[in-house]
Design goal:
alpha/beta, 2 domains, Aspartate Aminotransferase, domain 2, Aspartate Aminotransferase, domain 1, 17 helices, globular, binds pyridoxal-5'-phosphate, 4-stranded mixed β-sheet, 42% helix
């Protein structure tokens, strides 16, 4: 690396001296120093060394409409001047949260017309857990407490969020999961399908839901939660047989279905929600990320009318956050949804950029390091392997991290989940920018292969 500017060094010193960063090895971060991102526009970031970087991850999957949209800044500024804060406790409301609730009901699947707001996706899933148990208690079935989730799913980083999630490296810290949560197999054919065909494996993984319901007893199961497509787990696109079989099982047993739409929601698949993409009929949907395009924190839980009807009979729901439905966040979310709708951004993803990205990405299949390319909408994954035919990995070489570093050094953000490279660019990415992304990705794959062979 070239020597760093004094300004970069000063900021890195502040990081060393005072900041504790999320999902980081504190000691390693001190040694290397964080990359400092100073500004952004469209799909590009700039760091404090002046490098321009194509953001293939839309921040953390969230910057749907791209960086630098003044309309969102203006909406926040206007709302801050008018009513910067008021709470929604004790029978109070304010216009932005009400208008936003209506705007979300308009785009949500049929029959999902109410929203409980939170500050994040994790809080949305905490809210879900409490609401599910409250719902069954009102119905006179207080034993229906267990939430079935999936290994390697991601549902956030609060105590409930990390427990619902199936990341064992998260469970190891803090004695998780909390009681009343159980995990079944994920539909990750490439890594876990063995000799089965993807279709067979999809049925196998889905059947685990039924087996677990029967094992625990349907009278003890409150809900099943799943991401339509697992994001943080490695952009895991289930085999075609998976969701249809899950739907059959859900139809058979009296449990709630929660779609965690934090990544898939707001256009990522080329539909408004992942549930629309797969034809799912959730009782609740967790949202965050794309809701505000990440310009300000906000999450929530969209709830089906029949569930709300039961909750209406249950007296107080003793749950809420100081910042539930924060007026500034609500005003920003409203403006974000207006832009998504009026600029037909999701239609454009569906008709133009998603098919184009998926076609271009699959060209990487000819690369010697690539075992599989998969994707839906503006989500993509590239599996790095030693042997294409057997899907054998380069054991213990940290190939994903090597590739990620080459990406950083060559002006592209791709994330590594083990040896799976993943992308989720802003929904406004153009075809030219997709070309740039794929060209850079290929170059970094070449560099990674060279590094492995040297
Ligand atoms: C990011 C994410 C969450 C957690 O959202 P936070 O806003 O980080 O709390 C929950 N579920 C899924 C699927 C996510 O990707």
């Amino acid at each position: 690396m070239t020597s760093k500017t004094p300004q970069t060094l000063e900021w890195q010193q502040l990081s060393n001296d005072h900041h504790l960063a999320p999902f980081s090895d504190f000691k390693q971060l001190k040694e290397v120093g964080p990359r400092i991102i100073t500004h952004a526009k469209g799909v590009y970031l700039w760091d404090s060394e002046g490098h321009k970087i194509l953001d293939g991850m839309a921040g953390l999957w969230c910057v749907a409409i791209g960086y630098g949209r003044d309309e969102l800044a203006d909406a926040a500024s206007k709302q801050m001047r008018e009513l910067p804060y008021y709470n929604l406790f004790f029978m109070t409301a304010h216009p932005p949260v009400l208008e936003l609730s209506k705007a979300i009901a308009d785009i949500a699947p049929e029959g999902m017309n109410h929203v409980f707001f939170t500050g994040s996706g994790s809080e949305g899933n905490d809210t879900m857990l409490r609401m599910v148990r409250h719902y069954w208690a009102i119905k006179g079935q207080p034993n229906k407490k267990v939430i079935i989730s999936r290994k390697n799913g991601y549902h956030g980083s609060t105590v409930a969020g990390a427990s619902l999630g199936g990341m064992t490296y998260m469970h190891e810290q803090g004695d998780l999961p909390i009681p009343g949560i159980t995990h079944i197999a994920q539909p990750y054919w490439f890594a876990e399908g063995g000799d089965m065909s993807p279709e067979e494996f999809g049925i196998f993984a889905a059947n685990q839901l039924e087996e677990r319901i029967l094992e625990i007893g349907v009278d003890n199961v409150g809900a099943f939660i799943a991401e339509p497509i697992q994001g943080a787990g490695g952009v895991i696109i289930p085999p075609d047989t998976y969701w249809p079989r899950i739907k059959e099982i859900l139809a058979k047993y009296d449990i709630l279905f929660v779609a965690d739409e934090v990544i898939c929601g707001f256009g990522r698949t080329g539909e408004w929600f992942g549930s629309d993409f797969y034809g799912l009929k959730p009782d609740m949907m967790t949202i965050a990320k794309g809701l505000t395009s990440g310009y300000i924190p906000m999450g929530g839980l969209i709830v089906r009318d029949e569930v709300v009807a039961v909750l209406n009979e249950g007296g107080d729901f003793n749950h809420g956050f100081t910042y539930s439905g924060h007026p500034v966040a609500a005003a920003v979310a409203l403006e974000n949804i207006r832009i998504l709708r009026e600029e037909k951004i999701i239609e454009n993803v569906h008709n133009e950029t998603a098919p184009y990205l998926q076609k271009r990405l699959r060209e990487l299949n000819d690369h010697p390091l690539v075992g599989e390319v998969r994707g839906v909408g503006l989500l993509g994954a590239i599996e790095l392997v030693q042997d294409k035919a057997t899907r054998k990995r380069y054991e213990g070489r940290g190939v994903g991290m090597i590739c990620r570093q080459f990406c950083f050094d060559n002006g592209l953000i791709m994330r590594a989940v083990g040896d799976t490279m993943i992308i989720a660019p802003p929904l406004v990415i153009s075809k030219d920018e997709i070309d740039e992304l794929v060209t850079k990705a290929r170059k970094c794959l070449d560099l990674t292969l060279e590094a492995l062979q040297s």
